[in-house]
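Anyone have tokens for GNAT family N-acetyltransferase? Sequence:
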Amino acid sequence: MMIRPVAASDVHAIAELQVRAWRAEYDGHVDEAHMPTLDDRIGLWNGVRPGEAWLAEIEGELAGVVGVAGGEIGILHVDPDRHGDGIDDRLLTHAEDVMRDAGHTTALLWTFRENTRRRALYERHGWEPDGVEQELRPGVSEIRYRRML
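Reply: yep, here.
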């Protein structure tokens, strides 16, 4: 597996991966009206600046993506067909290294309360809920995780 910076030519593939990952991870937790669309994800990824996002490739195929802004991980998605391959572990470690190398001593991220698989990943890496929560809409809450780097 290779982790490399996101390039403009990756935008469409990353947007497709993110839509598939959301459907796999959040179906039943997020109503259809709030699921991301390919167009809105393409718009989001077109605005990513250099040094903010990296992707994982396996034999030239997109396997996952992670995005960092300052001391916060804003996105971490893995191709649903690749769950269990350790890609999320590698991307999370990469993001932690990027933040540490940039001089951050503490890192933050948000995740859906109901996403127990993702929460278990973060906790394996030493992340802990810090008690801050936000309700995005009725019945959909995020909790914030924090980790010393």
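The chain has one domain: 2-148.
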